[in-house]
């Protein structure tokens, strides 16, 4: 069965809670999304606000302080928020891509550093306490004074399961990143050999239907084709003939289903979840939105990316990729006013940049 781009779009929006705001609580929404991009502190809050019928900043902040949700390096060796229960199996699966990313970034800059010794020493420094990133790298630099300190700190983060404790990662809270051992923060051990099939199943439930390369792009894992071929999965094809996998019996959404205006934050899961992102945007738009390691905040019109946005001096500034119909501008203005209020800029101006 061939699936059109519009069916893929509507189905993905439905699974991402973006066709209609869901009545889930914040904990259930984080679980649904597997892990929420957390490279920018406010992004998870805005992403959940766009998806949930009733969500406040305190809803997520309380989960972080209550250790039900944790912030740490996970998918693609980048910062995410995940349920503590999911972190216990997700973080071990990420060790291979995290080690690969560490080697690519710092391998040549750290000649003579024994990684097992580095991990052991970092664990000793962190046992029973929380240190900031500068503190742990300075302690490691005492052992390797001729090695660039930033690489030592990043290596510790990639080799050990590290949690970044609140208030870091809560609304408007950045600053020095704290390091603490995940097992101590959670009081539980990580799983030793979690099945990769669990990750594939959770991904498809939240992002499917999707191809092997999509799952790999989202997770950072490789060689998943034999894994997915061996699983009991439904198979489709997209308009280019690529095989797409899905959970058996998972519903598809009709192409003519209405899709409301939505605002997505920096690094939103929806934008980074696929190798082939044409279900959400054109290749030209992708080049504007995805620049190096940066994923700019976007807004959706009729289910696809219509432009980019940001806050500037308390105003919501929108830059459409092409002129928008008046009905679309009105819909964005209403949703934008709600976003301004959520972000603490109630009554702030809405500005349009060239392209509108």
Automatic annotation (TrEMBL):
This is Winged helix DNA-binding domain-containing protein. The lineage of its organism: Bacteria, Bacillati, Actinomycetota, Actinomycetes, Streptosporangiales.
């Amino acid at each position: 069965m061939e699936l059109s781009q519009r069916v893929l779009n509507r189905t993905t929006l439905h699974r991402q809670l973006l066709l209609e705001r869901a009545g889930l609580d914040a904990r259930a929404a984080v679980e649904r999304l597997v892990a929420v991009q957390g490279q920018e502190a406010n992004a998870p809050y805005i992403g959940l606000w766009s998806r949930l019928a009733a969500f406040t900043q305190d809803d997520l902040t309380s989960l972080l302080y209550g250790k039900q949700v944790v912030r740490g390096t996970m998918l693609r060796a980048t910062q995410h928020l995940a349920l503590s229960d999911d972190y216990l199996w997700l973080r071990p699966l990420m060790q291979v891509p995290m080690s690969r990313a560490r080697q690519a970034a710092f391998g040549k800059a750290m000649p003579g550093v024994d990684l097992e010794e580095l991990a052991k020493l970092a664990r000793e420094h962190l046992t029973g306490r929380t240190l900031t990133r500068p503190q742990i790298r300075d302690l490691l630099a005492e052992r390797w004074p001729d090695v660039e300190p930033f690489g030592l700190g990043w290596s510790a983060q990639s080799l050990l399961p590290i949690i970044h404790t609140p208030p870091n990662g809560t609304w408007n809270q950045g600053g020095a990143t704290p390091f603490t051992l995940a097992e101590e923060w959670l009081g539980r051990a990580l799983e030793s050999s979690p099945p990769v099939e669990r990750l594939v199943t959770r991904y498809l439930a939240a992002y499917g239907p999707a191809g092997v390369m999509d799952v790999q792009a989202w997770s950072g894992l490789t060689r998943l084709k034999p894994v997915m071929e061996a699983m009991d999965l439904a198979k489709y094809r997209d308009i280019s003939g690529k095989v797409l996998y899905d959970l058996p019996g998972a519903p598809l959404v009709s192409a003519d289903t209405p899709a409301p205006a939505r605002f997505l934050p920096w690094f939103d899961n929806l934008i980074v979840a696929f190798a082939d992102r044409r279900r959400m945007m054109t290749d030209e738009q992708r080049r504007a939105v995805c620049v190096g390691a940066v994923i700019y905040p976007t807004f959706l019109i009729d289910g696809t990316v219509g432009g980019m946005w940001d806050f500037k001096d308390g105003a919501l500034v929108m830059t459409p990729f092409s002129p928008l119909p008046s009905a679309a501008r009105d819909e964005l203005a209403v949703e934008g006013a709600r976003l301004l209020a959520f972000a603490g800029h109630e009554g702030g101006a809405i500005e349009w940049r060239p392209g509108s």
